[in-house]
Amino acid sequence: MLMTESEALGTPGGSVTPIAHLDANQTGLSRTHRLYRCSDGWLAVAARSPVEKTAFDEVAGADPERFFGERGVTRSLAALDAAGVSAAPVLQDQLNAFLDDPANAKAGLHAHYRHAVYGEMQQVGAFWDFGDLPLAIGRAPPALGEHSAEVLRMLSFDAGAVERLRDMGVTKLMTRDT
Prior knowledge:
Blueprint: E1 28-30, E2 33-38, E3 41-46, H1 50-60, H2 64-69, H3 73-82, E4 87-89, H4 95-100, H5 102-106, E5 110-115, E6 119-124, H6 148-154, H7 159-167
Antiparallel strand pairs: 1-2, 2-3, 3-4, 5-6
């Protein structure tokens, strides 16, 4: 069974696959599978096989942070590529480029909606496709108190009770001018 909100996979034998943990700086999973700061940007390294790990060690040496910190991204990528180590530059400040890309909009990778307080909103959308199960982000997150009266009425509170709950500070009620 594979769960999309989990880092672990249950095997047919009942055991659970190991869970990888980020390092303290949240830059990666190990010295050969992480992000490194270069002199002019960031680099993502994914040396996962034993051959790649050995090649990484031969290129970066005992202190990879120093090695990459003294070099630019292009020079670092060239050295890793020549050694057969998987790596790529980290693209930064990509939110607007992602949200402005018509191909991403067509693929449903971002969502547009009107928020009751903030107006027109755009956010990253659904990245999963479950085939016959539609997945879409078509509604804005509710504003504080936006649906409180409606929910309380569904729970059989009359208008007077809803107002008393508001006056007591138990709930918030959004009005059109807030």
